[in-house]
Structure formats: structure tokens, C-alpha cells
Amino acid sequence: MQQIFNFIYKNSNRLLFLLLLGISLFLSIQSHSYHRSKIISSANFLSGGVYERINNVNEYLNLKTQNDALAQENAQLRSMLFHTKDTTAAPKLDSIKGIKPSDIIVSKVIHNSFSSQENYLTLNSGSLQGVKQDMGVINSLGIVGIIDNTSKNYSTVISILNNKSRINAKLKKSNHFGSLTWNGKSTGFVQLTDVPRLASIRKGDTIVTGGQSVIFPENINIGTIDRIKIDDQTHYYTIEVKLFNDMTNLGHVYIIKNENREEIINLEKKEEKDE
Amino acid sequence: MNSVLFVNIFRFIILLTVQIIIFNNMNFWGFISPYPYILFIILYPVNGNKSGLLAASFLLGLMMDLFSNSGGFNTAACVILAYYRPYLFKFSFGLSYEYQTIKLNDVLTPERFSFLLLSVLIHHLILFTLEAFKFTLLLDILLRTVLSTIFTLLICIIIIYLTKPNRR
């Protein structure tokens, strides 16, 4: 017994080191899984609050560009309003009972990262505003990411500039789809992989979100084709997509609530069970 | 003794705040960012309490991870750096470092520079390796480590010179 105590006392530093290293490595490895631990995320009270304070100051520096973006979006929406075929007809709701299939929550980016392999944003709305895991986040130019963790007033977003992000996307002119990933190199470009060779694609074509995703509605802008490669191993296209969004400068964003999401997921689960 | 403790607590808070507010937002060419907050571990008293340093580095790294959404990468890098600090002292200042009065917060000599360089290099290598977590990205990790080390080192030296106690 005495020897055990002596051993612990003599090696107290080494044991402490191993303990702390073990904890940190555990957190590191856990963070590489898709939905990370809730402990280490900037959606908590402390870091969310600090980031909100910092953002209150930084916001003034970007006011002009943000205003321009909002004005442009307004103009676009107005032109849509004035150029409908029949302005007296009310827009149809996409459901029998009159419930819209998706709803939108307005939010603001209070912290943005784009320098590492796995980038996350922090938004200033959380579960109190109705934000839940796996909701889509977009802005006026295109998609931004998917909600990861939420706390009461804040939430974190897996940015499309993240190794773990995989989003269903398709060509706007045809329905050939692939999955959108990021290779961690440039903040202006993402990669669309697994597009079949049958698809006729050309440089400059627009890429939009696909209809297979239960997170994003169909036909939300992503970017344009910049370069086309053919994968040596799979013989599918790998397309370099130039983003419409400047991911390094984000202000207001919209969170999309898909009302049918749970129904679709439940249905698909049932299908899997039956097989 | 108490003043040393207070200086260290003060340094901990100030470095963490400056890192989060200013240096985390610095992104040269989109992927190089300096991490001068590890100056806390580097400047910790040479003969100070070792368990204290380990615990403080763990807390420092954990706070950084909380604010930058980075799992436990900073924590692991900080704890490893804190544990191997005595060996780095031995390497840079010679075997008898414990009997000398080493002051890091002073004019740059080759010994001090080599200690700084090694500490920053080790921290960054572990940080970026854990962050990428893939061997296919090895070249990318090395490039980021080298470039970020240069920037962090530069900023560390500037901070040391700015906060160096005045002597007449």
C-alpha cells in the first residue's frame, strides 16, 4: 500500500499529464464524428455571449456591404412580384391544408471561421427561436451550411467549407445529381463529386441544391462550374464549383424549417425495417 | 510569491482575450493564423509548480477550443507542450538550466530563440495534425505548421519586446 502511494506521489506529474492528455484526445477524436459533443461548441452561454458582444462592434464595419446585399435582394424580390403573370392571383400554398412545407427563421452570424479543415459558424438564434439540429442555413446568394448544435439562444452551423459536410446538389439544367464536398483548400470553391459521365456539362453551368435532401428545399443556388475533372478510379465527374457566396463575409442568414422532414425520415426508416 | 501568481493569472486572461478577439480573426491567405496565446506556457516561471502549469495549460487550451469550435486540439497541444517544457529547457539552455536564473522575458539570445522556436513548432505541429487527422493531408499540415510558426514566432517576439520590464 505504502509503495502504491509512493508511486503515485513520485509520478504525480506524469499521471496528471496522461489524464489531461487522455481527456483532450478523447474530445479531439469525438469532434471528428459528424455530430460533435455538446460540451465543446461555441453555442454555449459563455462563448456565445462573448461572440455576440464582439459582433456588436464588428457589425458596423460591414454595414455597407450588408445593406447593399439586402437592397439587392429586395430589388430581386420586387421584380419577381411585379412580373408575375397575373398579379391578382394569390400565390398558391404547397399543401392541401394550407400549411407551408417550409418556414424561415431570420438569424445573424456572430462568429465565422474559414481557416481550418472543419469550419463552423455561430448564429444568434437557438432552440427558443425554434432552431433544431439538421436545419438548412442559406442567405440571399446561396447555401451556407447545416445546423449542428443548439443551445437556448445560440446555435452552431457546419459550414459548407467543412470536410464533414455532404450536401445533395444537382445541375440546374438537367436533373443529374452528385454530392457536394469540400477538399479544404480554397474558401471560394467546393467540389461536386459522383456526377455520372452521361451528364452533359459545360463550364459556367449553375449548380443548385437537389430534391433528395430533406434539409434544403430544391433549387437553391450554390455556384457555377469552374473546372471539370474525371476521377481516375470511379470514372465519375468531379466538378470544381465556384460559390456565389463569399463565405468569408457573412451577415444575415435564413434558417429553413422543413415541416415534412420528420415525416419523410420516419417513412424511410419504416422502409428500411421492412427490408 | 503572490505577485508571481497574480502576474500569471493576469497574463492568462490577457493573452486569451487578445487571442480570441484579435488573433483568431487574422487569416493570412485564408489558412495561416498566429497563436501567440501559448506565450503563457512559454513564459511560466522555470522553477514554478509543474502540476500547476499542466492544469493551467489544460484550462487555457480548453477555453481556446470552446471559442474556436475545435474539439480538443488546442487542449492536447497545450498539455503536451507544458509537459515537455523542461526537456526543451534542457535542450536549449544546457543541462544545468535548473541552477541558472533563466529569464525568457528579455533580450533575444540564440538560446532563448531556439527555445521559443521549438515550443511554437511542437505546439503547431500537434494542433494542425489533430485538426486534419488524415495522413493524406501530410504536406498540407507541414506547410501550415511552418508558415504559422513563422507568424506566431514573429508576434511572440514583438510581444516579449513590448512587455519587457525596463532596466536602466
Distance between the termini of chain A: 59 Å
What kind of sheet is the major sheet of chain A? 6 strands, antiparallel, barrel
Question: CATH architecture of the domain at 45-81 and 93-161 and 249-257 in chain A, please?
Answer: Beta Barrel
Structural class of chain A: alpha+beta
Protein name (chain B): Rod shape-determining protein MreD
Organism (chain B): Flavobacterium alvei
Keywords (chain B): Membrane, Transmembrane, Transmembrane helix
Transmembrane segments (chain B): 5-22, 28-46, 58-84, 113-130, 142-162
What does it look like?
- Chain B: Keywords: Membrane, Transmembrane, Transmembrane helix.
- Chain B: This is Rod shape-determining protein MreD.
- Chain B: The chain crosses the membrane at residues 5-22, 28-46, 58-84, 113-130, 142-162.
- The complex is a heterodimer of chains A (275) and B (168).
- Among the domains of chain A are: 45-81 and 93-161 and 249-257, Thrombin, subunit H; 167-243, Thrombin, subunit H (Beta Barrel).
- Helices cover 28% and strands 29% of the residues of chain A.
- Chain A has helices at residues 2-10, 12-31, 45-58, 63-82, 261-274; strands at 102-112, 118-123, 136-138, 143-150, 155-162, 167-171, 177-181, 189-195, 206-209, 221-230, 237-243, 252-258.
- In chain A, the strands form 2 sheets. Chain A has a 6-stranded antiparallel barrel with strand order 1-2-5-4-3-12. A 6-stranded antiparallel β-barrel of chain A has the order 6-7-8-11-10-9.
- Chain B is an all-alpha fold and 168 residues long.
- In chain B, helix 3 (50-68) packs across helix 4, helix 4 (73-93) packs antiparallel against helix 5 and helix 5 packs across helix 6 (138-163).
- Chains A and B meet through helix 2, helix 3 and strand 2 of A and helix 3, helix 4 and helix 5 of B.
